[in-house]
Design a protein that fits this description.
CATH topology of one domain: FAD/NAD(P)-binding domain
CATH superfamily of one domain: FAD/NAD(P)-binding domain
Radius of gyration: 21 Å
Strand order of the largest sheet: 7-6-12-13-14-11-15
Bound molecules: flavin-adenine dinucleotide
Shape: globular
């Protein structure tokens, strides 16, 4: 097929790039190395026949907030919300719950209700225009004045380490909740920006919810592929691109991380050196289970939340993430758990996944530590397990080369690489090779199933 544009890789960024280019009238060819489209949006029967598991993203807050995905108005992908967005169980008291309603959530935080409303509540008031600004920090602008005012207020607070922001909080509940949210960043919680990651994710729970895709995230990937094909685009699986020289098109958009780009092409020395300095973040150790019923949470309210943060108090989570950042394995890790059945009963039974953070490339088996953390809040959990599937960093990378050393974020998300992703540039999606663009989560705005990198790269390609 003659193509005006080739997109390499079909994660959410590659898919959005392909559809954006096709909607602009380009003949698009999408090449995917794996046997299924979707990258971090794939689903598969990992444990038992009929049990649908997401291999990557399940929680679609970023997708719902993303102007790139919302703008596509896709048919076929339906979002399902659990009664509670997020739960954070604690040993000696009721779980902390994040509801869609910010005031209801604040009411559960005792003396910190006011602090929640003044921080997360104010983000909610600034609304989606502020979130859009965070998702496209380099433009295109103009931005709604409300978003700029929100950014001026939110920016300085967001830049703080979570450990600094936590000094303003008094309750065990609010502090634990902050740590659980901020730890999504996979950073040491003493690092700048961790407050921003935590508060933004919490704000999204109130603004758009933390839904899942009915039937599995693969449904969203398939809807994007269907849209591409309906526009005349071609999409091919099982085709791994090894050298850019194989491709013959005026536009090439790459959904790959810097290390892969280095292997794909001969790059000018200066750019090559900058990419070689790019840093990958910690890895994850992921487990998937098929259960014979719901997780037997000690606090039944936790059953209503699709996402559960495990790891106990603020201090425990700070310690576990500091251990991981120092290259060690925490015996009581922070565990991010997703029980999609709380929102979506159509996945063929009670499927569940959880991961903890580990040093990049770690070969340590964390299954016992993860299951022990679940048992801590759900005694009898192990008795419910029908089958389990374990993926350490090596298995994750074997299934998707973008997960370098098990890093699911496409590179460290600390302050340096927030500004320099993957290089310092007003248009970091552009490479020095004519017509070649990078769109993965190693470009702004970074990790998450939002497709914004793909949208930005396609936009830039169309303009050039
Ligand atoms: C376990 C896990 C849980 C997650 N949970 C969430 C969540 O709940 N919510 C959320 O928003 N995000 C989550 N994420 C993160 C999210 O999945 C990623 O940020 C997102 O998928 C990144 O999209 P991408 O398009 O940049 O790359 P990817 O989704 O990683 O896709 C890259 C694609 O490119 C293909 N590819 C690479 N090299 C080549 C080549 N040379 N030739 C052809 N094809 C190639 C790969 O096979 C892959 O399909 C999770 C990720 C993981 C792994």
């Amino acid at each position: 097929m003659r193509a005006d544009a080739v997109v390499v890789g079909s994660g959410p960024n590659g898919l959005v790039a392909a559809v954006t280019l096709a909607r602009a009238g380009r003949q698009v060819l999408l090449l995917e190395a794996a046997e299924r489209f979707g990258g971090g949006l794939r689903s598969a029967e990992l444990t038992l026949p009929g049990h649908v598991h997401d291999l990557g993203a399940t929680v679609m807050a970023m997708a719902l907030a993303s102007p790139a995905l919302r703008g596509l108005e896709l048919k076929g992908a339906e979002f399902a919300h659990s009664p509670v967005a997020v739960a954070h169980p604690l040993d000696d008291r009721p779980a902390v719950l994040v509801h869609r309603d910010v005031r209801r959530t604040a009411a559960g935080l005792g003396p910190d209700a006011g602090a929640w409303l003044a921080s997360v509540g104010a983000l909610v008031k600034a609304g989606l225009p502020l979130v859009e600004l965070l998702l496209k920090p380099l433009g295109p602008w103009p931005v709604a004045p409300r978003a700029l005012a929100g950014a001026a207020w939110f920016g300085p607070m967001a830049a703080l380490p979570a450990t600094t922001f936590a000094k303003a909080l008094r309750s065990v509940e609010a502090r634990a909740l902050l740590a659980g949210m901020a730890a999504h960043s996979m950073l040491d919680l003493r690092s700048p920006l961790t407050t921003g990651y935590g508060l933004t994710l919490a704000g999204l729970a109130h603004l758009v919810g933390w839904p899942v895709v009915r039937g599995g995230s693969q449904v969203l990937a398939d809807a994007l592929v269907a849209e591409l094909r309906s526009l005349g685009g071609q999409a091919v699986t099982g085709h791994r691109v090894r050298r850019l020289a194989e491709l013959d098109a005026p536009i090439v958009v790459l959904d790959v991380t810097p290390r892969q780009l280095l292997a794909l092409a001969d790059l000018p020395a200066g750019y090559r050196r900058r990419l070689e300095r790019y840093r990958y973040g910690p890895g994850v150790f992921k487990m998937d289970w098929a259960l014979d019923g719901p997780v037997p949470w000690r606090d039944p309210a936790v059953a209503g939340a699709a996402t559960v943060h495990l790891g106990g108090t603020f201090e425990e989570i700070v310690l576990s993430e500091a251990e991981m950042a120092a290259g060690r394995h925490s015996p009581r890790p922070y565990v991010l758990l997703v029980q999609p059945y709380a929102a979506d009963p159509t996945r063929g039974g009670h499927t569940l996944w959880a991961y903890c953070h580990v040093p990049n490339g770690s070969a340590t088996d964390m299954s016992d530590a993860i299951e022990t953390q679940i048992e801590r809040y759900a005694p009898g959990f192990r008795d419910r397990v029908l089958a389990r599937h374990v993926s350490g960093p090596a298995e994750l990378e074997a299934g998707n080369p973008n997960l370098v050393g098990g890093d699911i974020g496409g590179g460290l998300a600390g302050l340096g690489q927030f500004l320099r992703r993957p290089v310092w540039s007003p248009a970091p999606w552009r490479t020095p090779l004519p017509g070649v663009f990078l769109c993965s989560s190693s470009t702004p705005p970074g990790p998450g199933a939002h497709g914004m990198g793909g949208w930005q790269a396609a936009r830039l390609a169309l303009r050039s």
